[in-house]
Each structure stands twice: as structure tokens, then as C-alpha cells.
């Protein structure tokens, strides 16, 4: 009886969840080896100090765990295992208040349904972005906070946002590197004085693709971002893209083909058809959203304009006709590399296919965007071989072409229309 009371006490419930992850009911899709691996990892020894800190510092009761964290635990996913969070900087509320002038509205640089983001300056002079979770009821935030924190602590790539630390006193906070140029959305759509030329747009396309490929294949565990969009791609001083906001991200075990989620979350305009209709989440969910992002880079249009018109619906007829002139952002004029543009257009077309089976994986998309001739065989798997062979022959056999380094010396080849 005492053990049961302790389990449901405010001070005991989170440790119990972590201590008994290996004994929870694992989804029928999860293998025995996955469960055994979790047993051997002993997450409580690694996370005991952090959990204790969370209990002491947070004013939020710990007697409930959010549905998202409960789902991850019950399906054999532990966002806390093998995470070096104790090495991350723990900020006090006083430090965060000082950095942001008590979270002054003047320092508010972003706001959404899940969080507010403030610009701040630490005592050592470092400028940071401080994300304060505001999503849902207070007792829901702990699980969401731990999931996002656990994922970000695993992620380390030149094209993903960098986690500096966290705070759990008086709320839930993530402290991230600050990127001075803001988001891709702000530069593309919000009347920025600094227009993005084609070389920058192409760089953003390549870097974001590399970052997504890392999340899908390069991490210790597969990560599905679930909210790829222009607003979640930040730009460094040198316009290097940084994928940010892992609030909706999901782990995907190696032996699983997909998640089926019951809670609808995401951004309209970027949502894959299979997710909208059936709640299916896998790598192809991100591939579809990335295709929409490519269309934004090509056209300068929003995923959904102010009249709620879908960019995908508007662009598909032009893509099928390979009507580059009508697709390209008018602000670019003719000032773009024709081969690069054709590769990005082709990649976008493949990514936004209605059927997820017809969409390539990010590895093939990266090869395609870089102009790799080896991507021909991969791309042929998804569309009519005769059509793609004709397309690539004209694209890659242009006189003087020796790889991506020669893009600027190429003239526009005659292109066949993209077939549905």
C-alpha cells in the first residue's frame, strides 16, 4: 500500500515512470530486443538528479503526465534515455528574467500556440533565444517539455538549432542559440527589406535537406520533425539554415514503419494527405512538408495565402507543365541558375506527391538537389523510368557539365513537362 501511495504522490510519479519504462506495456510492433535495451539503459540513474531538480524548482504539480509523453513511454520510446542533460546549463528564473528584462514585450521575437520566444542577453554577453512553454494546461507542459528537451539534447548537426540549456524554475524554458537573421518565413513573406537571392535560396534548400536527412538517418534514433515549415527554419549570419522547434517531433523505433497518432497537430499547408486522413506519421510526412518549403523558395508564396489558397494546389498544374517562368518568384526575375532551379523544381514535385509511396526519401532528395548523377536510379523508382531518363539525359549531359561546381556555367536545357 505504501508503494502505491508513493507512486501517485506528487514527488514520486515521474521517477516511477522513468523507473518502470521497461515494465510498461510495449506496442505489439516493438521488439523484445528494444524492450531489453531499455531495461539495460537504467534511465533513472542518468536522470535522477534532473528529476529531483524539476520537482524542487517547478511550481507545476507532477501528478499528471502529458498524453504525448505517456504515448511515447507506452510504445517503448523513452525520450530521456542516453541524454546528457545534466551537462546542459541549468538557468535560474532570475537569470532568465535578467536576460530578457523580465520577459519584456520588447524582447518578444516569436509567439505561437505552443510557446513564446524572447531574445535575451546572458551575463557573459551571449545573445540567446529563450523559449517559454505556454501550451495547454500547466500539468501538460512537463511531458511536452521533457520530450522536446530529450530530443534536442540528442540532436547535433550544422543545420539544426543548438540547445544551450534549460530552466525549470517558475515554468519550463529552453535556452537556444540566437540567429540574427530570423526565420526563413520572415525574410520570404514578411516584407523584409533584404530579399533573398537565388544563391541563398538554393543554399537554404540544401542545408535544410541535409538537416532533415540527419534527423531521419543520422541520429541514434530516427526523429520525425512533424512541423517543417518556413517559420521553423532559422538563418545564421551566413544564411546557413537551422531547423528549429522540436515541440511536435516524434521518435520512430528502427523496426517500426510509422506512427499512428490520435491527436491532430501541425500547420495547414504543410500537412501530408496520409496524416490528414489517417494520422500516419513517418519520414514521408517530413518529405511532403519539405516539398512545400521548396515551393516557397521557388515562388516566394506562402504555403497558404491570405485567401487560404494552397500553394500545392496552385503550383501542381505549373509543375506538371514544367512552367518555370510562371513558378519563379517575380522578384528574382531571370537572376537564377537554370540547372539549380530545375533540380529544385523536380525535387519539389517529387516531394508533394499525393501518395507517400511515390515520394523519395530525404537521401534521394539530397542527391538530387546536389546534382548527383547517381540520383537518377533512385528517382526512377518513383516515376515512369522512360520519362526520368529523358529528363536526366538533358539535365546532366549539357555540354561542359562536370557536377554541381559547374552549375553557373550551364545554360538552360530544354525540359520535358513533368508528368503526373
From TrEMBL:
Domain Protein kinase, chain residue ranges per copy: 103-376
SMART domains: S_TKc
Domain of life: Eukaryota
Gene Ontology terms, MF aspect: ATP binding; GTPase binding; protein serine/threonine kinase activity
Alphabetized InterPro entries for the sequence: Kinase-like_dom_sf, Prot_kinase_dom, Protein_kinase_ATP_BS, RBK1/2/STUNTED, Ser-Thr/Tyr_kinase_cat_dom, Ser/Thr_kinase_AS
Listed GO CC annotations: cytoplasm
Subunit-level organization: Interacts with ARAC5 and ARAC10.
PANTHER family: OS08G0249100 PROTEIN, PROTEIN KINASE FAMILY PROTEIN
Family: Belongs to the protein kinase superfamily.
Name this polypeptide is given: non-specific serine/threonine protein kinase
Taxonomic path: Eukaryota, Viridiplantae, Streptophyta, Embryophyta, Tracheophyta
Amino acid at each position: 500500500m505504501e508503494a502505491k501511495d508513493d507512486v501517485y504522490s506528487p514527488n514520486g510519479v515521474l521517477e516511477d515512470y522513468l523507473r518502470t519504462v521497461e515494465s510498461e506495456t510495449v506496442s505489439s510492433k516493438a521488439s523484445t530486443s528494444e524492450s531489453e535495451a531499455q531495461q539495460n539503459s537504467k534511465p533513472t540513474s542518468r536522470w535522477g538528479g534532473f528529476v529531483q531538480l524539476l520537482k524542487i524548482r517547478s511550481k507545476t504539480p507532477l501528478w499528471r503526465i502529458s498524453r504525448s509523453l505517456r504515448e511515447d513511454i507506452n510504445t517503448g520510446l523513452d525520450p530521456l534515455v542516453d541524454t546528457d542533460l545534466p551537462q546542459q546549463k541549468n538557468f535560474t528564473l532570475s537569470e532568465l528574467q535578467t536576460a530578457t528584462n523580465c520577459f519584456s514585450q520588447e524582447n518578444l521575437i516569436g509567439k505561437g500556440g505552443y510557446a513564446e520566444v524572447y531574445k535575451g542577453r546572458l551575463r557573459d554577453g551571449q545573445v540567446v533565444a529563450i523559449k517559454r512553454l505556454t501550451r495547454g494546461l500547466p500539468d501538460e507542459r512537463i511531458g511536452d517539455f521533457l520530450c522536446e528537451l530529450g530530443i534536442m539534447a540528442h540532436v547535433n548537426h550544422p543545420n539544426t538549432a543548438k540547445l544551450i540549456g534549460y530552466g525549470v524554475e517558475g515554468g519550463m524554458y529552453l535556452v537556444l542559440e540566437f540567429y540574427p537573421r530570423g526565420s526563413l518565413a520572415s525574410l520570404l513573406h514578411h516584407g523584409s527589406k533584404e530579399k533573398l537571392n537565388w544563391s541563398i535560396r538554393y543554399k537554404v534548400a540544401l542545408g535544410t535537406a541535409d538537416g532533415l536527412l540527419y534527423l531521419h538517418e543520422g541520429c541514434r534514433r530516427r526523429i520525425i520533425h512533424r512541423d517543417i515549415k518556413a517559420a521553423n527554419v532559422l538563418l545564421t549570419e551566413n544564411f546557413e539554415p537551422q531547423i528549429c522547434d522540436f515541440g511536435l517531433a516524434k521518435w520512430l523505433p528502427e523496426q517500426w514503419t510509422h506512427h499512428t497518432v490520435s491527436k491532430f497537430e501541425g500547420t495547414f499547408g504543410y500537412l501530408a494527405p496520409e496524416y490528414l486522413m489517417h494520422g500516419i506519421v513517418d519520414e514521408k510526412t517530413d518529405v511532403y512538408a519539405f516539398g512545400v518549403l521548396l515551393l516557397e523558395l521557388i515562388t516566394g508564396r506562402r504555403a497558404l495565402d491570405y485567401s487560404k489558397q494552397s500553394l500545392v494546389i496552385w503550383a501542381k498544374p505549373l509543375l506538371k507543365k514544367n512552367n518555370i517562368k510562371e513558378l519563379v518568384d517575380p522578384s528574382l526575375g531571370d537572376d537564377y541558375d537554370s540547372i539549380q532551379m530545375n533540380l529544385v523544381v523536380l525535387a519539389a514535385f517529387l516531394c508533394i506527391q499525393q501518395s507517400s509511396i511515390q515520394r523519395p526519401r530525404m537521401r534521394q532528395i539530397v542527391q538530387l538537389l546536389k546534382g548527383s548523377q547517381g540520383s537518377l536510379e533512385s528517382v526512377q523508382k518513383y516515376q515512369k523510368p522512360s520519362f526520368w531518363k529523358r529528363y536526366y539525359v538533358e539535365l546532366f549531359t549539357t555540354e561542359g557539365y562536370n557536377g554541381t561546381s559547374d552549375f553557373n556555367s550551364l545554360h538552360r536545357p530544354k525540359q520535358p513537362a513533368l508528368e503526373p
